[in-house]
Structure formats: C-alpha cells, structure tokens
Amino acid sequence: MTISRRVALFLLAFGVWSYLLWPNFMRNIWNSDRSWEGASPTSYLIVHFVIAIVSLVLGTIIGILGWRAFRATRR
Fold first, then answer.
1. Distances (CA, A) of 50 to 29, 42, 44
2. Of 64 and 1, the one with more pLDDT
3. Taking the CB of residue 33, how many other CB atoms lie within 10 A of it?
4. Average pLDDT of the segment spanning 36-65
5. Cβ neighbours of residue 18 closer than 8 Å, sequence gap 6 or more
6. Would you say residue 1 has pLDDT above 90?
7. Predicted confidence band at 70 (pLDDT cuts at 50, 70, 90)?
8. For the chain, what percentages of helix, strand and coil (3-state, to nearest 5) are there?
9. pLDDT for 75 beyond 80
10. Angle subtended at Cα 13 by Cα 48 and Cα 31, rounded to the nearest 5 degrees
11. How many domains does the chain have?
C-alpha cells in the first residue's frame, strides 16, 4: 500500500499529538479528587488510565507508521 506524503505527515502529527495530550490528561486524572478513595484507586482512575494507555500505544503505532511512510516518500 502506498501512503501519500500528506497522509504520512497527518499520521506523524497524530502520534506527536498523542504524546502532547495524554500525559497531561493522566496527570490531571491522577490528581483528581474522584481518583482516590482513601489510599485506594477508584474505578474512575483505573478506567481513565486504561483509556490513556491504549491511546498512547495507538498513537505510538500510528506515529511510527507515519514516520516510516514519510521517510519512504523522500526517496
């Protein structure tokens, strides 16, 4: 499959955006009053951390695909 340079840049930007957005989201969720009940994490924290981790993994995969496609269009 051939990916255009424009699509490759979009995929790469999506991967970068994931690393700009999700770590801040995780920090905000960690510090939220709804995340902890005493010393125990709540389901709110667990669910949102799973969402953030999955999003970071997908952002990494998409970013790598974008980077590889971008490099391939320069040849």
1. 12, 13, 10
2. 64
3. 8
4. 96
5. 55, 56, 58, 59, 60, 62, 63
6. no
7. very high
8. 80, 5, 15
9. no
10. 25
11. 1
What are the structure tokens assigned to 34, written together?
């709804």
Tokens of 68: 């590889």
Helix (H) or strand (E) holding 4, with range, is none
Average pLDDT over residues 33-48: 96
Q: At what angle do helices 43-73 and 5-30 cross, to 10 degrees?
A: 160
Identify the domain containing residue 51 by its residue range: 5-34+41-73
CA 68 to chain centre: 18
pTM score: 0.86
**CA–CA separation, 47 and 54 (whole Å):** 11
Instruction: State the Cα–Cα distance between residues 35 and 39, nearest whole angstrom.
Output: 10
